[in-house]
Amino acid sequence: MEKQGYHYQLHYVIEAMKNQVRAYFGEAKWVHKQQIPTMENYMRIALLSSGYSLLTTLSFMGMGEIVTKEVFDWVISDPKIITASYIIVWFMDDMTSHKKT
Length: 101
What we know:
Blueprint: H1 8-33, H2 39-49, H3 52-62, H4 69-76, H5 80-100
């Protein structure tokens, strides 16, 4: 990847993975302490642990050299349009899972 000149992208993927692991740890702490988080805290952590953030970053990485460093900086800045798309997909997944049970 370094030979191709866009090795910096891996840094963003690693950071996205770290954020996801931190979110998993946050959820594990709630379970361990038998806590019920507020909706605001739950949404903040659950959106990260859903994996959509990591998937978005990996998708941009897969696009190769056409994606610039500025795009990655934008994605990790948590823009509202990206967060909104995570919420929509997350709720759609929950509705589908609920219908199956």
